[in-house]
Amino acid sequence: MGMGFHYGLGLERFDLPCGGQIWGHGGQLLGYVTYAYRRDDGRSLTMLLASGNGDGFISFAAATGAAYCLT
Fold first, then answer.
1. Contact between residue 46 and residue 59 where contact means Cβ atoms under 8 Å apart
2. Is residue 10 assigned to a domain?
3. What CA–CA distance (Å, rounded) separates 35 from 2?
4. E strands, the chain, where?
5. What angle do CA 43, 46, 15 make, to 5 degrees?
6. Do residues 50 and 34 touch, judged by C-beta distance below 8 A?
7. Exposed/middle/buried for 61, CB within 10 Å: 0-12, 13-18, 19+?
8. Are 56 and 64 contacting, i.e. CB atoms less than 8 angstroms apart?
9. For labelling alongside 4, which of 20, 35, 50, 64 has CA 20 to 30 A away?
10. Which run of H or of E encompasses 43?
11. 5-35: buried (b, 16+ CB within 10 Å) or exposed (e) per residue?
12. Segment 53-63, tens digit of pLDDT
């Protein structure tokens, strides 16, 4: 799976580049991509992409960095 990504019991954990972790779940089906994650301090991020094009994970990673690491 690679460094920084962990999966089990339907929950995924991502290690943030600025420190800390987020927990949640995401998925892709028929052009839709959804992600819902939460950090231990209560901050959450929910994202839906409906473009059908591109890589949803790259958009998720960029949004996650902006939401959790730049503020």
1. no
2. no
3. 19
4. 5-8, 11-15, 21-29, 32-39, 44-49
5. 60
6. no
7. middle
8. no
9. 50
10. none
11. eeeeeeebebeeeeeeebebeeeeeeeebbb
12. 656 677 777 77
